[in-house]
Structures are given as structure tokens and as C-alpha cells.
Amino acid sequence: MSEINLYLCFPPLKLLQMKVRCDFLVIGSGIAGLTFALKAAAHGRVCVVTKAGLADTNTNYAQGGIATVMYPPDNFDKHVRDTMVAGAGYCKEEVVRMVVSEAPERIRELIEMGVEFDRKDDGSLEMAMEGGHTEHRILHHKDSTGAEVQRVLISKIREHKNIEIYENHFAIDLLTQHNLGEYVTREWKDIRCFGAYVADLNDNKVKTFLAKTTILATGGLGNIYLTTTNPEVATGDGVAMVHRANGIIENMEFIQFHPTSLYNPNERRSFLITEAMRGFGGELRNSAGQKFMHRYHVRGSLAPRDVVARAIDHEMKLRGDDFVYLDCTHLRAEELRSHFPHIYEKCLSIDIDLTRQMIPVVPAAHYSCGGVKVDMNGRSSIDRLYAIGEVSSTGLHGANRLASNSLIEAAVYAHRASEDASVRIADQTFEEKIPEWNYHGTTHLEEMVLVTQNYREMQMIMSNYVGIVRSDLRLARAKTRLEIIYQETEDLYRRSTLSRKLIELRNLIAAGYLVIKMAQNRQESLGLHYSIDYPARPGSEF
């Protein structure tokens, strides 16, 4: 697996065949995909493909909020500076300034659509503080901001006559010249995307979606790890498909671990304890009840996420603990319950009253700062293919994402991509020569344990060797062990009918491999990539 180029011959799924044609094929249904769909629908027919339900997205689980400049004393320069500092200076400044300056207009659009952000008694928007920010600039809806945004977007999508929704449809692979019998390599400068093969999980069909323009909005890859705040659908699907299609992927080593997920070992997905609770005044303490963040950063519990996550990891290893505590007991009980109702109820469900008891927390895989390399309009290296949201690498986040910058990035890039793609759509046609899915020679997968075992092993490898703190030795071991699982899974994929879990496993292995490979290539500690073998860039250390 010196180079996992998984764009092999398309194996087989013994299913019925059919073709679907659309101007815009949107793969994913979070804020990025649905915002694009709504805007592009004015210029052509849109198909939204999502492998579960429309609401099964990372967006739906985003608690904290959306960062944007709205009121003095905040300004664009401050937001740019905070983003650059959090990103360890590795951000693209022109991208940061573009997103920050266009953010207020995108927020106004969401409000006009019906998103209800929390407001003060005087009617002005209530702006919260989060780690890494020097001003109050976080718009929120209680502690369920993403769910509120998702609710509004879904309602608009379902009532739009020019948008067709395909739930429980899993995109398997992108269609390129490879499918026309041409030998496509990573060095090609004119790879083009013609749509995707999509497995209909409702009635066992593989559909060929032919599209003039394809938009990847598939979200993240948190499930490469055992512990993640991401939902089950976050399996690196978009990154894997682009890698197999020989597109450019970058910065995959920068995996953000949210510092505070609820420590509840019997639960998966890990329940997120929003950064806003520390912005509200919550303090991190070790098992001895001692505050410790001041030893690691001048901003204490409001330090950037990479610093807080490493500090917690260090404290746990130092003391042999499985978790640390987030202490909110000194804060006003009524205000806590009002601002964080979902977190309050969740904690109560496991017998923790956060107004009187400290919350056990542990870091969990949360966000991928790298992904499909795109320009400022969301164009990937593959013509007719856009990537927006967490699946993309825009340059905004650099080596570490500033809290609450993800939803606004998705909204800004969805807007820019829709404008760019809509202008180009008139010059594009369908590639009718794409063959139907080939199902010859496959048999029913009788032992699902083969998939589930490899799935678990892959997650253990990534968690044990490619987590918050890394080393050359750990990365080498991870790569060696992942190669075995890759070979086993590819053999299974070639000879078996498909299942959702098998497709996801294949994608997760590809995503994990890219994280390992790019971590090995970065011989320094920078932001979210922290190696005990290499020094940190100035400003990137604790």
C-alpha cells in the first residue's frame, strides 16, 4: 500500500440499473450541501443525494454556534487575526479575509430564511465567547445551533420544486474518464467528473447519476477513531472518492480533537460539551480538583482547541486518569439551564447535575482541517467537481480550526460555489458513454463479521497510533497494520455484493491512510499535528 490508489475496477453489486440526469448533483445534506442546492436550483435541476436521512449530518450536531463579526468593538481584522493565530499561522490569509468579510451577509440570509438565533431583550443578537476568540462573536441557538440551521434548510429544500431528494442513497465512486476506458493518473491536468455511481439502499439498485456539475458536501471522517463527536455517517466518503479519482488531497494530518466530550464509555457517538460552556465561565480541573490550563496557555481554559486537547491528554497521562472535569458549579444555575438545555438534560440522564457536579470530559475526534484541495470558489483539481464544507481544504483553518468557523465557512463557500457553477453550467453536457455499474462475478457477503472486525481494528490502530500525540514509530506501525486491513477489505470488496458498512470501511481505510501518510511527511509539530520527534514551530507549542 505504498500508494493506496483505490480507483480499481468497479466491483460489483448485483442490482438493477438505471440512469438519473441532473444539472447539479449534490452529495451530502449538511449546511454546505443544502445551501448550495437552494441557490443552484434557480439555474437548473438539482439532485441531493444523502446516504441516510437529510438530518443525519455533522451540521445537525453542531452545538456552539457560528462565528461572525456583527457589532463593535469587534471587527474583521480581529476575526482574521484570531483565525490566523488559532491556525498556527498556516492559514491562507486571503481566504480568511474573504470568509470573514462575507460572513455577515450569509448570516443575514439564514435569518431571512427563518433561522432563529438567540437575542437579547433589546432585540440585538446575543454573541457568545469561545476558545481562541478575543471578542464575543458567536451566534447561537441555545446549545443546538446546527440543528436549528438544519431544520430551516430542510424545510426550504423539501418545498422547492426544482430539487429532488434521494435519501438512503450512498455515493460509491465518482465518474471520470477512467470509466470510459482511459488510464487516468494523478499527474493528469484535465480529469473531469461526470457524476457518480450511487447505491440505493432502499431497494437494492445501483444508479448512475450523470451530472453536468458534481458537488461534494460529504462532511468529515471522525469515525476513523474509536471516540468521536461525529455521527455514524462521517466516514470520509468524499475524501476517499476524490483520492480514488486521482484528485488532490491536502493537510489530512490536521485532525482536530474537541477537548471536551462527555466521558461516557458505553456511548457512541461521544456527546459534545460545547466550547461555549468554557466561554460562559466553565473551568477545566484535574482529578485532584486543581485548575491546570494556566500552566499550558496564558488564556487558560479559553486557549485554542489544539492546546486544550493536548493539555488534557497530558494531564490524563500524567495522573493515569481516563478523564478530567469541566467545572460549572460556580456559575448561576438558572442561566446554565437556560443557555445549555440539551447538555443539562444529557448530563442529568447519567445522573450528573452540572449545576452542582463537575462534568467528566475527554477529547474526541471532531473535525478534519484538511481534505479536497479547492480554490476560493470551491473548485477541486478535477474539472466539474466542487467540494464544500468539512470535506474540503480551503486554507481557512490552517493547522487548527478556530471554534465556530466551520459552519460559516460552509455557508460562504456554498454561496461562492453556486455562483461559479451556475455561470459554467450552460457550457456543460452529459457524458452519455458512461457504462452501467458492473456486477459480474460477485456473491452475497455471508460473514459480516469480516467487515465489523476490520472496522474495529482500523479504529483501534488510528486511535492508538495516530491520535493527539504522535511519533515516527507510531505512524510507521499504523501504516504497516493498516496495509493488512486494506488488502483484506479490497479482496472482500471485489468479490462481494455491497453493503453500507463495507463501502464505509473502504472509505475509512483510504482516509486513515491519507492521515498517516501526510503526518509522516510533516516533520515538524504544527497545530493539530504534534509529534514527540520534532520541534514545534514558534507559536505552535504549549
Describe the fold and architecture.
- By secondary structure, the chain is α/β, with parallel strands linked by helices.
- The chain contains 13 helices and 18 strands.
What's the helix and strand layout?
Layout (H helix, E strand, L loop, with lengths): L15 E12 L3 H10 L5 E4 L16 E2 L8 H11 L6 H21 L24 E2 L5 H14 L4 E4 L2 E7 L19 E6 L4 E12 L20 H8 L4 E2 L4 E8 L13 H4 L3 E3 L19 H15 L4 E4 L5 H7 L1 H9 L9 E10 L2 E3 L11 E3 L4 E2 L12 H19 L24 H17 L3 E2 L1 H24 L4 H22 L8 E2 L11
Parallel strand pairs: 1-2, 1-8, 2-5, 8-15, 14-16, 17-18
Antiparallel strand pairs: 3-4, 6-7, 7-8, 9-14, 10-13, 11-12, 12-13
List keywords for this structure.
4-stranded antiparallel beta sheet; alpha/beta; disordered N terminus; 3 domains; Flavocytochrome C3, Chain A, domain 1; Methane Monooxygenase Hydroxylase, Chain G, domain 1; 7-stranded mixed beta sheet; FAD/NAD(P)-binding domain; 542 residues
What's this entry about, in short?
The chain has helices at residues 31-40, 76-86, 93-113, 145-158, 237-244, 276-279, 305-319, 333-339, 341-349, 406-424, 449-465, 472-495, 500-521; strands spanning 16-27, 46-49, 66-67, 138-139, 163-166, 169-175, 195-200, 205-216, 249-250, 255-262, 283-285, 324-327, 359-368, 371-373, 385-387, 392-393, 469-470, 530-531.
Tell me the domain tally.
3
Number of helices: 13
CATH architecture of the largest domain: 3-Layer(bba) Sandwich
Task: Name the quaternary structure.
Answer: single chain
Task: Provide the low-confidence segments as ranges.
Answer: 1-16
CATH homologous superfamily classification of the largest domain: FAD/NAD(P)-binding domain
In the CATH scheme, what's the topology name of the largest domain? FAD/NAD(P)-binding domain
Indicate the CATH class of the largest domain: Alpha Beta
Radius of gyration: 22 Å
